[in-house]
Amino acid sequence: MAANVENNAVQETDKRIKLDKKDIRRSYWLWQFFSHANYNYERMQGGAFAMCMAPIIKKLYPDREEKIAGLQRHLTFFNTNPNVGAVIHGAVISMEEERANGAEISDEAINAVKTGMMGPMAGIGDALDQGVIIPLVVALGISFGSTGNLFGPLLVLIGLPIILMLIAYNCWMKGYSLGSSAITAMLAGGRMKQLIGAAGILGCTVMGGLVATSVSFKTAIAFNIGEQAFDLQSQLFDAIMPGLLPLGVTLGVYALLRKEKFTSIQIMLGLVVIGFVGGMVGIF
Amino acid sequence: MSWLQALIIGVLYYLSDAPWFFGEGYYVLQRPIVAGFLTGLVMGDPVTGTIIGATINLIYLGHLNVGGSMPSDMAVAGYIGTALAIATNVSTEVALAIAVPLGLLGTIWWVGKMTIDSFFVHWADSYAAKGDEKGVMLMNWLPSAVMMLVFKVIVAVVILMAGVPLMESFLNVVQGTNILHALEVVGGLLPALGIGLNLRAILKNETMPFLLVGFLLVAYFQISIVGVAMFGLVFALIYMQMNQKEDASYGG
């Protein structure tokens, strides 16, 4: 891999229009801020892709017709994870740079990189940030915040953007320096899969703890067995395991979600009805 | 609740899905824990706001925004739910029960926004055809920003100014009945959905034991969530080391 990159670098010595670090950074910040500014059903992040590419296109293509073609090329449907997916933008910028300097790179090649990479990057990125990083940081924030500790919200407000931007910025720069080979480099050796696996273990452990601290569900049922009063919650459920009912409810909800027979909204309404009716008649 | 407070909360609600906070609005400002804190600051009680926001956030822990769909608007639940709860002085569980229906209402505007924004991208098309890259860039944020700012501020101010007296009369009516207790039961149950949704994304048969260990650590030893995360980190490191050994043996 490294040898290939060096070969490419040698071939690209006589460039007419060279992008400098400032151009790449400016484009990154445009994406960082505006990736979802006009998120819509028709093109998703297409307008945002064009927005961050616009200064690059302007610099690379002084010819008016080429500039128009370049802007239109990037106003197409695009949708990916904005953080990990930034590797695509970096790669596309390096392809546009090579193309502007005479390399034979067709519209189709650029489109293929965009449309081919956006799906896998959305999958990896969403699993990593929405699946693990965000719930983890937010869970820690909640555990501080629920006792009134203001470090909780501040951790989410300041810590989370820093983590996500570090991922996005590094992916962007990696994409630019590796070009269209970025994706293979990223997936090489299954390192990404391993990282997601490790993050999943951390996430599951914390979620387990959160079940015990945040879900509360108790029964108020009590009756007499002969002369003996029997309290179902304290004398049966708590005796088996503290938090048995919250764990049962959570795993039950998870099982229903996994079967995909019910939507999350239906399950929510189910919980509301069961909890409300049970609370009214005094079972819970 | 003053008009000024309602207005500021409306602007914060707009910002939670706007580009202006490093583009991280929908990752960060949208979270009810942050929303509760900021709303609390505006209402003069950031600590109570944080506690309420943290509770509301539990339902949205597994919130996944995939492929442009939005299952629920946690920002409206966080900002407006917290503001209503502080203004009427209800328990956090009742606050949660108010926030949920508000969050469901939010999905309506999302569909509208995603549809109308589709027109703005055609405006960008016509600038692109003229080779005007500044116009292309402007169309990606200005029309949507103006539309959403006006819409969200109006929604927030109307719900807040009308909602506080409405909730006060509701609380007067239900005083002494079982209804508040029933709402608290609901509030205790709903976090199971938030956690369940996140588990759908990360839980596999192989990671089930880790979920149980995390649960047992808290259930039996009352370890804090930070402590549980430390254990989780160690488990993750062990997993990575075991995998690295395998890789090395392939190489050797």
TrEMBL record, chain A:
Chain ranges passing through the membrane: 127-144, 150-173, 194-217, 237-257, 264-283
Pfam families given in the database record: EIID-AGA
PROSITE patterns per the UniProt record, alphabetical: PTS_EIID
Membrane topology (UniProt): Multi-pass membrane protein
Keyword annotations from UniProtKB, A to Z: Cell membrane, Membrane, Phosphotransferase system, Sugar transport, Transmembrane, Transmembrane helix, Transport
Location relative to the cell: Cell membrane
Coiled coil ranges: none
Annotated InterPro entries: GatZ_KbaZ_carbometab (IPR050303), PTS_IID_man (IPR004704)
UniProt keyword annotation of Oxidoreductase present: no
Record has Isomerase as a keyword: no
PANTHER family (UniProt xref): N-ACETYLGALACTOSAMINE PERMEASE II COMPONENT-RELATED, N-ACETYLGALACTOSAMINE PERMEASE IID COMPONENT-RELATED
Protein name as catalogued: PTS system mannose/fructose/sorbose family transporter subunit IID
Automatic annotation (TrEMBL), chain B:
Cell compartments where the protein resides: Cell membrane
Regions that span the bilayer: 33-60, 94-112, 146-167, 179-199, 211-240
PROSITE patterns: PTS_EIIC_TYPE_4
Topological category with respect to the lipid bilayer: Multi-pass membrane protein
Keyword Transmembrane among record annotations: yes
InterPro entries linked: GatZ_KbaZ_carbometab (IPR050303), PTS_IIC_man (IPR004700)
Record keyword Transport present: yes
Descriptive protein name: PTS sugar transporter subunit IIC
Source organism (scientific name): Pseudoflavonifractor hominis
